[in-house]
Amino acid sequence: MKGISLLGATGSIGKQTLDILRIHPKKFKLIAISVGKNIELARKIIAQFQPKLVSVQEKQDYEILLKEFPSSIKFTYGLEGIIEVATHPQAEVLVNAILGSVGLLPTLQAIDAGKTIALANKETLVTAGHLVMEKAKSKNVPILPVDSEHSAIFQSLNGENPKNIERLIITASGGSFRDKTRDQLESVTVQDALNHPNWSMGAKITIDSATMMNKGLEVIEAHWLFNIPYEKIDVVLHRESTIHSLVEFHDSSIIAQLGTPDMRLPIQYALSYPERLPLPAERLNLAKIGSLHFQEMDMDRFRCLRFAYEAGKIGGTMPVVLNAANEVAVAAFLAGKIPFLAIEDWIEQALENHSSIENPSLETILAVDMETRTIAQQFHKL
Ligand SMILES: NC(=O)C1=CN([C@@H]2O[C@H](COP(=O)(O)OP(=O)(O)OC[C@H]3O[C@@H](n4cnc5c(N)ncnc54)[C@H](OP(=O)(O)O)[C@@H]3O)[C@@H](O)[C@H]2O)C=CC1
Ligand SMILES: CC(=O)[C@@H](O)[C@H](O)COP(=O)(O)O
Ligand SMILES: [Mn+2]
């Protein structure tokens, strides 16, 4: 029985992770969870799974829950609480499904504590890929991808020699606005943007998918996870999200992983690896699908993807700025404060005003992250 700590239990990935635990109660045991502000859902999760430790975002929610449950369940809050969950001694695996760069510190601490990391939180590798991968290597801790594209690449690489990789091909659905021109993007609403054609996900990543920043973050994530230079990572528009990504080898063979768009599979694979467990999910029926479509990426139409490649290639603190500016801009868009196209303008401005610091320490990364948010908030009068 594997003990599991889960960050972001009330989110899209968090809830699907709990589904996997319900399907395989003899394989996995939920030890500790962190949630944000959704206390209603937290109550239900606690009642069903009886974790040993629960961390909430706000102190007042901690005080409320503390009175409602028996003392056998420990409650905590804030960043310290998240780290306590991430490093719980009875958990073997940490599923990091928290949203945003707040996911970085718990990942680093969990690696230090020797936990296997099932990583959904892409901001961890985008902001500090060099630190995370170096630490994971030195501690001999596996970083197992949960993100569907990276899981597809990971599965395609099973048994292969990484030296034989010629390039990675990451598929992109194109998001909610893939068929719209840039002119048409001027008048789109938050509701329109949240309507992803293939996947049901949290609000922030759904907007990232519509701007193509999600793919940009995934390119940087792939660079660190698989130790592949940016020149060897391509993105192709594939509207069906049936092929989750591909690897091309130096003998011209291409290996891909396919499936219906269901995040429970990559989550389960990260939890069960190297074993493969059965999953009662919808099967892919190729004859029913009939045809699949592929299209070259247009970096002028999807400017955020170009920004991400550029920031990734510059390296240092540039991806930290890319991510922080994106988080602030997407939050402003979701709050109805700025139009859709302003997201990429804000990111472009933040990148232009930053001089990258090479090989940054954790302290530098956290300082640049904070500074980027403060500047964006002051400049745009949020
Ligand atoms: N959804 C998906 O299919 C995929 C997601 N990912 C990545 O996984 C991560 C999570 O995405 P997703 O599940 O969609 O996001 P959601 O918004 O659905 O969930 C985010 C979770 O994080 C919690 N949370 C957010 N901010 C804080 C905070 N400051 N402190 C403590 N908890 C916090 C939320 O708590 P609460 O709701 O209680 O406030 C919630 O549990 C992201 O990095 C995303 O890019 C990667 C691949 C696919
Ligand atoms: C499910 C998942 O991994 C998401 O990151 C998904 O890939 C989003 O799809 P697009 O960014 O391709 O629209
Ligand atoms: Mn993805």
From TrEMBL:
Binding residue positions for 1-deoxy-D-xylulose 5-phosphate: 122, 148-149, 173, 196, 209, 214-215, 218
InterPro entries on file: DXP_reductoisomerase, DXP_reductoisomerase_C, DXP_reductoisomerase_N, DXPR_C, DXPR_C_sf, NAD(P)-bd_dom_sf
Chain ranges of the 1-deoxy-D-xylulose 5-phosphate reductoisomerase N-terminal domain: 4-129
Pathway as given in its UniProt record: Isoprenoid biosynthesis; isopentenyl diphosphate biosynthesis via DXP pathway; isopentenyl diphosphate from 1-deoxy-D-xylulose 5-phosphate: step 1/6
Enzyme nomenclature, EC number: 1.1.1.267
GO biological process assignments: isopentenyl diphosphate biosynthetic process, methylerythritol 4-phosphate pathway involved in terpenoid biosynthetic process
Enzyme class: oxidoreductase
One GO molecular-function entry: manganese ion binding
Annotated HAMAP family: DXP_reductoisom
Protein name, entry field: 1-deoxy-D-xylulose 5-phosphate reductoisomerase
Source organism of the structure: Perspicuibacillus lycopersici
